[in-house]
Amino acid sequence: MGEVDLAGVYVHPLLIAAILAFVAAEAVGWLLGRLRLYRFVWHRGLFDVALIVLFWAGFASLLNGGNVAALFG
Fold first, then answer.
1. pTM for this one?
2. Closest by Cα among 33, 31, 8, 23 to 55
């Protein structure tokens, strides 16, 4: 897994996955807020962080071809 070239700047794929995860979690958080589903969540901050971590792991796995173990090894 090498760097991605974005207009001459080499960026690690995990950074791209983190940015995508943040955007996706914000979109889901906005939707949960609009549908008033956050009232079922005990601690909104912890829920939002967990959502970002789950999205980050998912996007990192997709960018790596589905091999999560190779990200850390």
1. 0.80
2. 23
